[in-house]
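Section 3.1 - Work completed
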Amino acid sequence: MRPESPLTPAERLHTERVRAHLDAAIAAAGGWISFERYMDLALYAPGLGYYSAGAHKLGMGGDFTTAPEVSRLFGGCVAQQCAEVLRGLSGGSILELGAGTGRLAIDVLSRLDTLGCLPAHYLILDVSADLRDRQRRMILEKLPRLAERVMWIDALPAAPLDGVILANEVLDALPVARFRWGAAGCEELGVTVVNGGFAWAAQPAPPDMTAACSRLADAPVERWDDGYVSEYCPRLVPWAGEVARTLRRGAVLWFDYGLPRPQYYLPERHEGTLLCHFRQRALEDPFANPGLQDITAWVDFTAVAEAGCAADCDLAGFTTQAFFLAGLGIDREMHLLAGEDENCFARLANQARQLMLPGAMGERFKAMAWTRALDHELSGFVMQDLRHTL
């Protein structure tokens, strides 16, 4: 493995500014802030946070690679699922939450065009100003004749829409709360400053956290050991509920790495799932390079299902990414993209393996569908039904 290259002067300056901002927040709070607050500031502080400042985050040369960046096959299959929904509604729009580089929007719109099933509008809601700019440039370059259908919005639409809401790797970026469970009770793990650096520090958990963790502790068959550490996302249910209220008729499609709750909180997963991404490397220290690295946690898909049900949506499907893509004919998409070009087909086959193999993205990533006022089955969820695991 090649040694990590040092930070550039611009990167050093930026992370020092973010550190100063976090230092000030901790001092203002009396020397301690929750990890949820730390993660929120590190990722979303205006002009400073990872998703709010101008870092090259996605794809080649970025910090991590998502399924749309791996292959056009992903977007082609998602488009097939969108087409089913749009045809069932006799039309509608698509709203993508957190559109990354714009790659998924381009691939979905391109494939829907060939299917004769374009949406009335393709809306994008993204908190990152630099990613929005990158999306605009890429869509104008790659898909100029459909660019007028794409619109950027600053908040969830006030008027509910008919169509599809897409969220690929959005939930894992919601700030999480960290806890430690022990014989003496539940503690909240937060952040303090020690010798000029950030460090973990525990405080007695507030009643709402203790109650939430007690419910989580009941999920696995075996009990947690003393000192069990993990996380949960207090914002997931209310935020996902707001997303559900945006939909009048149609489907919400969630794609992310995660697990059903009984598997998420197994006793052997005693350090949780918190992970950071920097320059295509997975790191465990959330205090390194604040503002320059992504901070994520796996998604509790039981909580996602609960949020949908609480918002009066139907839980229409839950499966692995591999079975979602297979159900939508990824093999057919390969033949359509490659034509008679054997070299292209070989490249697509390698990409398909990365998207589908259990050791790559195939099982770690899951797909979930909520529907409202939609009667027919969704093809991406007919080959495997994991709803019983939730």
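Second construct:
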Amino acid sequence: MRRALSLLAVVLALCAATPSAQTPPKTLDIYYVDTEGGQATLFVSPTGQTVLVDTGNANPPGRDPQRIMEAMKAAGAKQIDYLVMTHYHGDHVGGFEELAKLTKIAHIIDHGPTVQPEQKHDVYDQALKTTPYTVAKPGDKVPVTGIDWLIVSAAGKTLKTNVAGAPGAGRPNPYCAEFKPKDIQSDLENGQSTGSLITYGKFRTIDLGDLLWNVEFDLMCPTNRIGTVDLYLTSHHGVDWSGSSTLVHALAPRVAIMNNGTRKGGQIAVDEVLESSPGLEDLWQLHWSFNGVTEHNPPSRFIANIEDAATTAAIVANPPPPATQPLGPPAPRAGGAGGAGGRAGGPAAAAPGAPQLGNPAHSPAYWLKVSAQNDGTFTVFNPRNGFSKTYKPRS
């Protein structure tokens, strides 16, 4: 009897000692919300703290804030602990007014005053007077428990010190030799973008907002101070004013996610940089891109939102012409610079009188979700089709 009790005690002790083996690992969850070519990315830390990067568009009214709220509900989030505003173009700050009515925003971080006075947003500016507020500088940290959130660019300035412990940080960047500057004189607010490097254990991801091509050089040359990352959110939605090989190839991401729209981003020059990036395993997109057509879009299982069959067939049968004009100011659009329109002459600019492609109602709108573990493992999930793929840590 005493022997039986002793064995029972051992079994109970072993069961009590290994509950963590049955507990799912805590993850950093990232929701790339579909704002039809803008940005709203929700980060939920393993401790439940939230960081939202940008608030999407103002138009149509309420659409993007409601989509953000749906992601928050799915994540079990009750408020936004930190709002990191990359810059003040309408596709990034436009949803702020409505979102502030729907949820508490506890702290705002941005790059300081706009360099484009026409981009002022009165409600946002007023909120800065009543909400805890920080002007970010390269090297600053956002105090999220368990996450290393480092500001690497802000107000046109970039990080000038190597990221401690980052793989590859501090090495000369061989891709600087192939860099060719672009004469981009408009939309200077993009170049002010607040960029973030987010690290959770061995997992690393970067979000540079709409940081412009020439500022990418300042960040990455002559030394790669960032090192390599696992996941890269394509700069500027996949518009070719950003996303140089000097940046992308040096970061050497395993996975790229593009927050494009049907006709915004996904430009072939950007796709070609990604396709030739060393070590890139997959590209995921929020939308099937009319700019990339069949040659450059990834397989549909990697795309969150796909247009109806008739629309897709029409654009495949009659692809947009290649850009024939030099890089210039973006085509005018409602709602301020940096929104849904493409640059003049580019494939994103619809010809006068052409039918409007795409589905404005677009309901439901699917996000892409990333769940990252401390050991560097991460999974990307597409709720449209239930497809997911897990990426094990680099060896």
